[in-house]
Prior knowledge:
This protein is α+β, with helices and mostly antiparallel strands. It folds into 2 domains: 6-156, no CATH class; 161-239, CATH 2.40.50.140. The protein contains 7 helices and 11 strands. It has helices at residues 24-45, 81-100, 110-120, 147-156, 204-210, 249-252, 265-273; strands at 2-3, 11-17, 54-62, 66-76, 128-135, 141-145, 161-175, 183-187, 194-198, 214-223, 229-239. The strands form 2 sheets. Strands 1, 2, 3, 4, 5 and 6 form a 6-stranded antiparallel beta sheet that branches. A hairpin with a 6-residue loop joins strand 8 and strand 9 (194-198). Helix 1 crosses helix 2. It is globular and about 55 Å long. 33% of the residues are buried. Residues 1-5 and 247-259 have low confidence and may be disordered.
Amino acid sequence: xxxxxxxxxxxxxxIAPTSTRLDLKTYTQILNEVRMSLEEVDRTALPVRSPxxxxxxxxxxxxxDVRIVLVPAVVPAKRTWQSIAAPLHxxxxxxxxxxxxxxxxxxxxxxxxxxxxxxxKHLGAGGVEQVxxxxxxxxxxxxxxxxxxxxxxxxxxxxxxxxxSSVTGTLDVLSHSKGSSxxxxxxxxxxxxAVRVVAHSDHSELLRNAWGRRVMASGILQRNSxxxxxxxxxxxxxxxxxxxxxxxxxxxLGINPRITGxxxxxxxxxxxxxx
Length: 275
């Protein structure tokens, strides 16, 4: 069962060519990277078993630049309008973040960051002056892929150091083609970005059985210059108990009037939250 697509659930893509004609291959490659990025952000932002969106072109015009509006082809009944905003805002915010610093943005993985770089490779000699994306869901928010964005995207996924360590999060996006090592993503709830995991072939069944579960993967972890986890060469995987969120400190205030000691309620909450 599906629901109708609302007009404000859309992403506007503007490609400004350096000449009056935009190369067809360039056009299709940029759109494909945008589509794949939306799908990857959607997977990282929302739970593993959420029904996924497929994207379609709703509008396309060409004047001084090429304007394309992408919308969900259909909206699964179990998807709320707030959840549809997640990939839209996440993608635009991520590009804006990469324009400012060489950090992997929330809801991005190494692959998604690389896609931003692939979009940017068409700048200049590729016949494109700039690519701008705007989320039309709620407040209009625009981010531009420029040379600074591409430079930061390249640096964000460049391994700067490696050491034996572990990553904890939800296992998702399994991939194992013939002749290659099994791969997966682990969504880290603390950093809100996904870490690429490469495993040995004898870990295939272990990964399949752990799909959608909270896990701790250990191995050689590569980090970027900002100290963010980029990828993990896995040697071991442990399935963890389902995460139980800690009780909000505010919920227990009043049970024992002396629980905060000499601190006021505000001071106690500030101390707990900064711990």
